[in-house]
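Changelog-adjacent note: as of this version, every example in the card shows the full chain rather than a window. The one below runs 189 residues end to end.
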Amino acid sequence: MWKNSGKDRKQEGSGRPTGFGRLTDVRVLTSTGLLSAIAIVLGFFKIPLTQLVELRFGSLPVAAAGYLFGPVCAGTVGFVSDIGGYLVKPTGPFFPGFTLSSVISGVIFGCVLYGKEPTLKRILFAQILYTIVCGILLNSLWLSILYGRGFIAALTARLVKELVMIPVNTAMLAALMQPVKRYGAVRQA
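Full-length structure tokens:
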């Protein structure tokens, strides 16, 4: 069912390509495009929990793409959703660092979740890794560069919010993984 161009590395034991060759499969490309569109739309919604903490949903389709299609496709969804979200409704100046963070978030979710059972422990690990690398380190760096504030000032302002959101984001992602897992099983049948 899955064709391998020889340029892609195969996921061990599955015979399915995991690299850019996945994007040549029409079903994968269509699903990736739909997940990108969903991520763009969800990126506009936020639920404020406190003055500093808000619930955001834009990373959920990126994580779903990581689970279903691997790090390359999920990174692509992150890239397209960041650029597309900016083109549809810019909420500030464009900064390519945030696009890089979106790509890296897809790669993280793809590396941790693809081809594996989405257990709570694995989802929590993916969320912690995503929060530390993208939410705390990279996005704080981008904000410090963009607004001319010191990195430590940006980091300390974001640290508590990002740490508080780990269990909330983990719960949302765990709830999402059950229907996504069923979709993946149906797609492969």
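Structural remarks: The radius of gyration is 17 Å.
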